């Protein structure tokens, strides 16, 4: 059935609420540089696509994208195309959207986050929601990167037939990168695979090798001393907004397999949220509200 909020008619909306058992997904990302080879909207592009894929495996409503997540850079050297919003605005917008989602019948909300930089704001948001009573509950799921390591583990455990999207050459490449402990993080092989599976026309593998994804290690001494600084020093250590080894050989077939694996993982999270009867009960008990 149609699970996307924007594509559902008002007449059919109650059916979607019922089929979803009151679960609604908010895809959340950001707009920032992802190396020279991936689009600025990589984070929201991948979670929006994956949320819809997962909703077809385990029915849940997919809310319109929360595109503008937390990008802390707002200085003259911020890479072109980045979008930054004040944190208090993001928090207020998230809460207001959750209230509107609840008003329309969805009392269980899953934020599916594709941007690592949203971690701090989402942790604070969950805590903020506990400061007053709400008639809804919220959970957060961070996108997982399937390629190359999770794909390789599945191949090793379940055999090549478990990834029918991939050729023998693709399988050899993924296993090679896994054996070499390929580093992934941001604009890496994992994110490149998702982009290749969703919008290959937006990927510029020919731009690899111009800027590297290796850490400069300049801010590591703070971590070694137990001092937390802004974004853990990530922006200082990775000035190219690229964290990982070059995704050479990544292709659309690998991307399709990686997307399927992550959609299945997220569909399980949706199923757990649909079946849960405790989260709302615990919230009500904390506020002395009768169920």
Descriptive overview:
By secondary structure, this protein is an alpha/beta fold. It has 11 helices and 4 strands; from the N terminus they run H-E-H-E-H-E-H-E-H-H-H-H-H-H-H. It has a 4-stranded parallel beta sheet with strand order 2-1-3-4, sandwiched between helices. Helix 2 crosses helix 7, helix 2 crosses helix 10 and helix 5 crosses helix 6.
Summarize the structure.
The chain is an alpha/beta fold and 291 residues long. It is built from eleven helices and four strands.
Name the helicity range. 40-55%
What fraction of the residues are assigned to beta strands by DSSP?
Answer: 5-15%
What is the general shape?
A: globular
Strand order of the largest sheet: 2-1-3-4
Number of helices: 11
Q: What is the structural class?
A: alpha/beta
Number of strands: 4
| Largest sheet, strands/sense/barrel | 4 strands, parallel
Average pLDDT metric: 96
